[in-house]
Amino acid sequence: MASRLGPQGLTTRVIAVVIAVGSLAMATLWLRDHWPSRGQSVFCVIAGSVAVGSSSLVISSPMIGFLNGAIYVVLSVFIVCFHSLRLLAVTWSIAAVVLGVLFVRLISDDLAVAVCVLSVAVLLNVFVAFSCRTMIRLLQPNAGRDD
Question: Per the domain annotation, does 48 fall within a domain?
Fold first, then answer.
């Protein structure tokens, strides 16, 4: 928040603080002695997707927003490992809207950079998600036969 590339106005700074506090609250679900329920996990994924998107959009620099949007890769891996592809579609839909807004904001500076950054963000998410899904499918036949 002290950087000139971070949130600039009072409203965007308040949003950033709310996102940080909400993220810490969600993290406490995993700090307990047992994993959260499936419903709590789905809630955290959706809330996390919205939080990542919001935090990407309140940053004044669209390039830093795209960099922040790389967190969708982590969410995608978690969803692929523990949830359904429908939840991945929800997360990617939120990410598509966020990346689209950032793309439009970046076009005014440099179209070529905007196209390249958007391409990298999309390809990174798709490649990592499908790589993890493939790895899980390859390991699944041996899941019950390990020593």
Answer: yes
